Amino acid sequence: MNRIISIFQRDFKSSLREYILLYMMLGPLLLAVGFSLIIPSTESASLQFALESNLDQPIIDEFNKYGNVFLFETRDEIKNRVNEIDDIAGIARDEEGNLYVILEGNETHDTEVVPQKIIRELEGVNDANIGYKIRNVGITKSPISIIGSAALMITAIILGGIIIGFNIIEEKESGTIRALNVTTMNKFEFIIGKSLLGFVLPVAQVFIILWLLKISNVNHLMVLVIVLAGTVTSSVLGFLIGVISDNQIAGVMNMKLIYLATAASIVGAMILPKESQIFLYLLPTYWIFVGFRDIVSNTATWHHIFVNLSWILGMTFVLFMVIRKRIIRGLT
């Protein structure tokens, strides 16, 4: 156990010294921060109105039919709200008691036109020609939020495995592996020690990503199960990168090939008809992405998680058996 922990500590310190590995450790979190600034929510995608709180209740109810209503005490508060970065129209009464719209000037067409039509309808103008329909499609999160967060989480998992691979490359370049072969350390201890960073880092990153994106209403145990299963896949891929790459340049090239397969599984799950996705079943990364997607969208059940888990571990085992001899030979 002491030897395993020593390998883990050495890999962690080595990752902090190498800029490329440090970027891999921080990259998913930096992407999550950037994504959180542009991610649209279901609320912000609908029309928004800032109304004076002293308006009659029927007027407030009428605007509430078409979007989200926010009440403010003064016109200055409404103007300040309208001037913020998102799209929102202000509604107030002038001195003569007429309703008017307050706009910043860079709003979308609907934000500019719809409030005017609602006011015309309230005033009894017959050409308002506006109506509304309420339809619940069962979506509580933006599709971009669901797909983007799932893609970030699988990125964190794959990068965890790639870090394992680059640490093995560093061991090869420094001749450490040859030295370890003449010590009392066996290959099992070496593999476990090398894999620890690829397990611990993605678990921490995935839950930090969920926190950064303010996604809290998910089953965290389901998330943990998919993360741990995914780290098994990424660790096998990491060892493969490490043993087939003679230097970091070759490692970067092989990393791109592996992430290309990951990206293909994500894109395929997004755009292919469900009946055609059967061609992606052999890719463990497909099931990792689907698992995260269903968990974030709150459609996953434990039956779905068990199916995903079976495919992830099953396909990973097949992959390991295919490349097992190459990995053992590369660590000798």
SSE map:
Elements: H1 2-17, H2 19-38, H3 42-45, E1 47-52, H4 57-64, E2 67-72, H5 75-82, E3 89-93, E4 99-102, H6 109-122, H7 143-174, H8 176-180, H9 187-212, H10 220-244, H11 248-271, H12 284-296, H13 302-330
Roughly how many Å apart are the termini? Answer: 21 Å
Overall structural domain count: 2
- Strand arrangement, major sheet: 2-1-3-4
Query: Topology as H/E string?
Result: HHHEHEHEEHHHHHHHH
Low-confidence runs: 134-139
Instruction: Tell me how many strands there are.
Output: 4
User: How confident is the prediction overall: mean pLDDT?
Assistant: 82
Largest sheet: 4 strands, mixed
Radius of gyration: 27 Å
Helical content class = 55-70%
Number of helices: 13
Assess the beta-strand content as a share of residues: 5-15%
Global structural class? alpha/beta
The outline comes out as: elongated
